[in-house]
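Incident log entry.

Two folding requests arrived from the same account within the same minute. Monitoring flagged them as a possible duplicate submission, but the sequences differ. Recording both here for audit purposes.

Request one:
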Amino acid sequence: MEPLKQNLTILQGATFRWPFYWYSDTESVIAITAVNRTYPATFTAASHGLPASQVPAAIFGVGDWINSASTAAKDRVYVKKLATGTFTVDVDGTDGDAYTGSAGRLIYNVPMDLSSGWTARMQIRASIDSTAILAAFTSADGTIVLAADGGITLVLADTVTDALNFTAAVYDLELDNTATGEVTRLAEGKVTLKPQVTRV
């Protein structure tokens, strides 16, 4: 897989936090049995398996009012779990047609469970071939937090960013499957450090 191309900005002297999610190639297709046309719209889908965090998903076959936002091209909306059998979408269903059929489907890529069996590491360097590490993150020291819902959060304390001294740099982020030994480069890009004005 190609790594996510994402440039980062670190504010010197401030806590740096970057959360994002990794979804597998496995698609979950769940039947929608009812739609509550409210704002936001609420859907019933037994055993949908959604995590607690919002997930990008496609919704089909429940009426043009939602399909216009989630088409056959798999444009995504964000769905949020309410309970084991219900979820919500931040769209206005109050003027939509009633859902009376059985063709509705929720389709989403299953989040990677990173809560065990994975480690992560990331380094920031002035350039790709630079030998000096400007900043480092690892799951071992808690600067990378891995979660069961595919969540990956990078964290640097304000005392760490305060000591950084560069203008532009590069990084990449790698995840290691400890069971198979397979390493995935998940993200890469440029890093900009914005100097602070307020100093103590």
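Request two (distinct sequence, not a duplicate):
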Amino acid sequence: MPAENEIFFSYAWADEKEEGESREKIVDDLYESLKQDGFKVVRDKNNLGYRGYISDFMTSIGKGKKIVIVISRKYIKSQFCMFELYEVMRNCRFDKHEFSKRTLPFVIEFIDFKDTKIQEEYLSYWDDKYDKYKALAKKRAGQLSIEWQAEFDRIKMIYQNFSKLIGWITDMNTATTSMLSAENFAEIKKAVGEDIIAEQDNNVKNEDTHQPEKNTVTINNAGAKIAQQNVNSTVDNKGANFNF
């Protein structure tokens, strides 16, 4: 499949304290299933490579046409995952409907963001993270490397846009892992396939729309028979009309 049909994965890696369904296993299963069906799939553990830059990979995810987003508590508290989500939003020009077209949200751990206590918990978490980085940047202004400054900028972006990022995800009609993994992830494959077909149809329409206009030129019969061999034309006693 062409590069424009790549499917990226944005998720939080498993850890020793993980409980319930394994994020890693679900991502592994979906990755292998899509790959076996001929989809071009991209994830950090398989495609980043030794000595690859994480920051570059996060940026490439943001530019992806299709991104599987595996929502979990760890994801919501990860600066890397949340920055990937921000990059997707930014590359969608902060258009909510474009964001919906590009993302495939996968809820592995339900978080009730309609509960004000939950909202306060996560807002406070990012408040605290931002305040600490802000204090460090102020105290060590001349000592921070470009990479550390970039990390502070990422935290700032998440802090400023957290409620919008989560708001868009929670407003979408997402599904649980059991629903999406049914029949070898048929629902996700159907959604991706339909989007690819729609995009291809749209490209064909755009090509048809931009076809050059034909111009009609009239010349006398002296050169009509010669030109008639190479151009779509009509000839009568008065002259010839040629469509270019």
